[in-house]
Specification:
It holds the Pfam family Aminotran_5. The protein is α/β, with parallel strands linked by helices. Helices cover 40% and strands 17% of the residues. Helix 11 runs parallel beside helix 14.
């Protein structure tokens, strides 16, 4: 039995439950999606109660719901609840995992040409600090990651394979499941950046077989900004150094000793925004109720529709490569700077973003791109909105 596609009534219901869709044509979901109204209401209502009755008191009242956020996230990625830490964003999550690894001089990190700038900075810093080496696996001429090249690159010094599943400035995707099989065969730590994945693509950490996975809330999960989470495999948690500690990090503390708690929340600190955590949980629940498989089918359909229409517009070049592509669609307009394209579309209440070269440095340099326009679709977008976007681009070129 196949995946049941959305019908028009459902799409209109999702849009009715997202007040922002009445104001703008939002094609910047890879930057920050429009949240469902229920997410906004959850955050605002919690803050109102907190301001009225007191922060600690309202935290106690909503303790069960706050803890349920971890269970919902675990369900989303097929993890155990004690393997989830809720943090401020994907960069924090990734940083905690990466910097928890005990690097030594001569250790090697293997990554791909699609790696995100923040992660690349950490690689370079580790090279300067510890003397590690960085190996970058380039995509082939079709834009696909080479598993054979990965196998060849592995050596006894390989400490980590770090892969961004979906890059910031192109619609291509990395084969994270197949890479996971290689990592496991060689017993190498495997870190996946899934900040653009969760909420649009089914992500199963058991199938991916990763040790660590970082996610943001604001993108395809449609959660508030300032939310994210880190997955750490239970058997790996004791192998990662903690970057900071407080009373929440420990199971117990005496005047002379302490014991670290035995779950992934050891990577958190006590003080955090409870309203946003509830909002994150509500966003995950909203996505789960729809079905990630159904969302992924819809996103692929809309993205392929947009790419097809863009390729038929003279003067536009689409820059998405690889056999499997996602909801991010990147393109350039001949003779028009990407920032100018974004500004002109904004005048028509159409949101897109600009992908800069530094965001995916290896990929952009390889393809001689200084910037691209990034239009990222989500399931609440429509074919009619795609038509309006393409008409606006035709007008811009004419």
């Amino acid at each position: 039995m196949g995946i049941r596609p959305f019908n028009e009534q459902e799409i209109q219901q999702f849009r009715a439950e997202t007040k922002g869709t009445a104001q703008r044509l939002h094609f910047n979901n890879a930057g920050s999606s429009l949240p469902p109204d229920v997410v906004l209401d959850t955050v605002v209502n919690y803050l109102t109660e907190e301001a009225t009755y007191g922060g600690y008191e309202i935290e106690y009242k909503y303790n069960a719901e706050l803890n349920n956020t971890y269970a919902l996230i675990a369900r989303l990625i097929n993890a155990d609840t004690d393997e989830i830490a809720v943090v401020e964003n994907a960069s924090t999550a990734w940083w905690l995992a990466f910097n928890g690894i005990d690097f030594k001089a001569g250790d090697e990190i293997i990554t791909s040409e699609m790696e995100y700038v923040t992660n690349l900075i950490s690689f370079i810093h580790a090279k300067k600090t510890y003397g590690i080496e960085i190996k970058v696996i380039p995509n082939d001429k079709h834009g696909n990651f080479s598993l054979s090249a990965l196998e060849t690159a592995i050596s006894p010094q390989t400490k980590l394979i770090a892969i961004t599943h979906i890059a910031s400035t192109t619609g291509g995707m990395m084969p994270i499941v197949e890479i996971g099989r290689v990592a496991r065969k060689h017993g190498i730590l495997y870190l996946v950046d899934a900040c653009q994945s969760a909420g649009q693509v089914p992500v199963d950490v058991r199938e991916v077989d990763c040790d660590m996975l970082s996610v943001t809330g604001r993108k395809y999960l449609r959660a508030p900004r300032g939310t994210g989470f880190l997955y750490v495999r239970k058997t790996v948690q004791d192998k990662l150094k903690l970057q900071f500690m407080d009373g929440f990090t420990t199971q117990w503390v005496s005047e002379t000793d302490y014991k670290i708690r035995d779950d992934a929340r050891r990577f958190e600190m006590y003080e955090k925004n409870r309203a946003l955590i509830l909002g994150l949980g509500k966003a995950v629940e909203y996505a789960l109720n729809i079905g990630i498989d159904r969302i992924w089918q819809r996103v692929q359909y809309l993205a392929n529709t947009l790419r097809g229409q863009l390729r038929n517009i003279e003067g536009i070049s689409v820059h998405d490569f690889g056999d499997e592509q996602c909801g991010i669609v990147t393109f350039t307009v001949n003779g028009v700077d990407s920032a100018a394209v974004k500004a002109k579309l904004a005048e028509k209440q159409i949101n897109v973003s600009v992908g800069l070269a530094k965001s995916t440095l290896f990929f952009m340099n390889k393809n001689h791109l200084s910037s691209v326009v990034r239009a990222s679709v989500h399931y609440y977008n429509t074919e009619q909105e795609i038509g309006v976007l393409c008409d606006a681009l035709r007008y811009l070129i004419s």
